[in-house]
């Protein structure tokens, strides 16, 4: 993971929040993988952002209960890809799209608050 971060030099690290796994072994493996990824990001001084699966689906598809195939289709459409990405790739891209959307909205809200505060000071 550190090699990938070093190679691509991202500004942020976005990851899906933990969900309830159906079996304990899967939950343990998922938790370990997430832990390794988050530690690598923190060690590279990247800010880490977590998004719930429902929020990602809501952002990308418009429905928080969307199916994987719908996420794949919308990722393909939004990014103008020649074909639907594989499910795992679509999930990762959807998380990135969600982070961009949330970050952009947060910046706009901060600018609006700043402009409002300036207006009150005049």
From TrEMBL:
GO cellular component: cytoplasm; Holliday junction resolvase complex
Catalytic activity annotation: Endonucleolytic cleavage at a junction such as a reciprocal single-stranded crossover between two homologous DNA duplexes (Holliday junction)
TM regions (residue ranges): none
Catalytic machinery residues: 16, 88
EC number: 3.1.21.10
Biological processes per GO annotation: DNA recombination; DNA repair
Sorted UniProt keywords: Cytoplasm, DNA damage, DNA recombination, DNA repair, DNA-binding, Endonuclease, Hydrolase, Magnesium, Metal-binding, Nuclease
Residues where Mg(2+) 2 binds: 16
Family recorded in the similarity comment: Belongs to the RuvC family.
Protein name as catalogued: Crossover junction endodeoxyribonuclease RuvC
Biological source species: Escherichia coli
Lineage, highest ranks first: Bacteria, Pseudomonadati, Pseudomonadota, Gammaproteobacteria, Enterobacterales
């Amino acid at each position: 993971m550190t090699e990938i971060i070093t190679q691509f030099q991202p500004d942020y690290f976005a990851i899906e929040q933990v969900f309830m796994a159906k079996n304990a072994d899967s939950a343990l493996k998922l938790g370990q993988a997430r832990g390794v990824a988050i530690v690598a990001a923190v060690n590279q001084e990247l800010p880490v952002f977590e998004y719930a699966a429902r929020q990602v689906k809501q952002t990308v598809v418009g429905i928080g209960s969307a199916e994987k195939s719908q996420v794949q289709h919308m990722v393909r459409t939004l990014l103008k890809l020649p074909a639907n990405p594989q499910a795992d790739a679509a999930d990762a891209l959807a998380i990135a799209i969600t982070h961009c959307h949330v970050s952009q909205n947060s910046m706009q809200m901060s600018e609006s608050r700043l402009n409002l505060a300036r207006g009150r000071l005049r």
